[in-house]
Amino acid sequence: VLPIGIIGTGKYVPEKILTNADLEKMVETNDEWIVSRTGIRERHIAAPDQATSDLAYEAAIQAIEKAGMTAADLDLIVVATITPDMSFPSTACILQDKLGAKKAAAFDLSAACSGFVYALGAATSMLQMGMYKNALIIGADTLSRITDYTDRNTCVLFGDGAGAVVIGEVGEGRGFKAFDLGAEGAGGELLKLPAGGSRTPASADTLEAKQHFIQMSGREVFKFAVKVMNTATVDVLNKAGMSKDEIDLFIPHQANVRIINSAMERLNLTEDRVMINVQKYANTSAASIPLALVEAVEEGRIKEGDKVVMVGFGGGLTWGASVIVW
Ligand code: ACO
Questions:
Q1: Where is the active site (predicted)?
Q2: Binding pocket residue ranges, ligand 1, CB within 6 Å
Q3: How far apart are CA 51 and CA 91, in angstroms?
Q4: pLDDT in tens, 271-305
Q5: ipTM for the complex shown
Q6: Which of 67, 200, 236, 307 could form a disulfide with 166 if both were Cys (CB 3.0 to 4.6 A apart)?
Q7: Of the CATH numbers 3.40.228.10, 3.40.190.10, 3.40.47.10, 3.40.50.300, which one belongs to the domain with range 176-325?
């Protein structure tokens, strides 16, 4: 198969910062609780006139430039998101227009916090079979728009952002080695946004019942997360024919530092081999893994030849893991 890897990266978070101290004024919570239970200290929140495609655009132009390309060169755009600008047109189509990426095919992918790794898997296989030469893959979410800021169980956990990569052919031996994508649809009830779709369209009743906000069974999702972070990593390493000792950098979905710590323990990973930035951005859903990846690149934590594992879990329920040789 053609070696397909990451040839450009970019990220964007909105300017406005919402700290734990700010949240203390909004709901019955405190900095100590939030930090000790989640590791989160602050999160970025989109301006009223910013939607997901705007966050995605900022990350995209950086990634395209770093790849040494222009938007007109793009063959494919995939946006992983659960907070599209609207149901349709897709956020990817809106972005295609903004970028002027006239020849690119464009579609959105919905797999919640696993969306970025799902999108990488889908696009990589399309490039490997020769369907396209390059693709712009973005994880972008504006969770603040679907968060109930009167519910302390959820509002402390989420933030807004976007991360982007351009993928294309790389040198022999480099690039993506394996993907492990999965779902446990039976757990769908544990994490959902109930209304606004064809099952329960928006109405005065759904607004009244706050059914346009994220509903989550935190403890159950926590258990699922701890389990699949470990099993998905072990499975993807097996597929790649690698051992966990070979991981140079582990990039987990940034939802809760306790979930990451438990994965580190089970996988025997020390801090220097794990990327953590949940304290600054909170859980940004599909943007979380690319934000962490791009920040790791910017900090010089990834060098050519490094084996990087990305692993996420989220609504669906879903999980997604990948191994790339940088
Ligand atoms: N401030 C103060 N107290 C709080 C807060 C808060 N912000 N939130 C909850 N509490 C209270 C609860 O009401 C509860 O009180 P009670 O015992 O009197 O009922 C108490 O704190 C403990 O609650 P737990 O649910 O046991 O807390 P836990 O240690 O499990 O932490 C958390 C909760 C942080 C939500 C954790 O379960 C978690 O991180 N779960 C995973 C969530 C996740 O990752 N979701 C995103 C998936 S990604 C996606 O697809 C969007």
A1: 113, 253, 283
A2: 29, 33-34, 37-38, 112-113, 152-153, 156, 191, 216, 218-219, 221-222, 225, 255-256, 283, 285, 314-315
A3: 9
A4: 999 999 999 999 999 999 999 999 999 999 999 99
A5: 0.92
A6: 67
A7: 3.40.47.10
